[in-house]
Predict the structure of Hypoxanthine-guanine phosphoribosyltransferase.
Amino acid sequence: MSQTLADMQQILDEADCLCPEAEVQAAITRMARAITEKLGDRNPVLFCVMNGGLIFTGQLLTQLHFPLQAEYLHASRYRHETSGGRLEWKVEPNFDLRGRSVLILDDILDEGTTLLGISDWCAAQGAREVLTAVLVEKDHARKARPGLKGDFTGLVIEDRFLFGYGMDYKGYWRNAPGIYAVKGL
Ligand SMILES: O=P(O)(O)OC[C@H]1O[C@H](OP(=O)(O)OP(=O)(O)O)[C@H](O)[C@@H]1O
Ligand SMILES: Nc1nc2[nH]cnc2c(=O)[nH]1
């Protein structure tokens, strides 16, 4: 096994599981009900924020039983690091947002800079309303705006560096079937 693979296996073996898969799935089901209640008759367009939003979006979408359009965008600011920098757009959506209800789907609201930047961009494109849904909110007071929260939140989790369920550690373990914290971080 290469050193990278051995290191990554050790990361998972030594990590703390903060939320097992069944609890994550229950949270996604609760979110699906709340989103349906709010947006079920608004013909919304949903944007998965790649890459981290992939698994959450996939598991949420099939629980939304109303007409919607599903799209993606790609914006990133961590680049395999454990602290964030400037938000970089990798793929801007090519989609007419004028007058639309928009729901942004992402794995985590940490400082919230990513979701604020994306929400502002959607509003500037003429969206009628922009809502956000995050699987995880990180519990700390360093938000980009005091008290910043998603409109729909699955789980509130302690202030450690998390991976699994879409969140990566150095590009790995987005596929981990639960939410884990790296040992010592
Ligand atoms: O609330 P913030 O502090 O802005 O952090 C949250 C963002 O960080 C992660 O993305 P990242 O930039 O790591 O890109 P990724 O989606 O490719 O993992 C995550 O997917 C969120 O989009
Ligand atoms: N993987 C991962 N990405 C993040 N982006 C912001 N916070 C986190 C985190 O705790 N884990």
Observations:
- The helical segments are 3-14, 21-39, 54-61, 113-124.
- The chain is about 30% helix and 30% strand.
- The beta strands are 16-20, 45-50, 69-76, 88-91, 101-109, 129-138, 152-157, 162-163, 178-181.
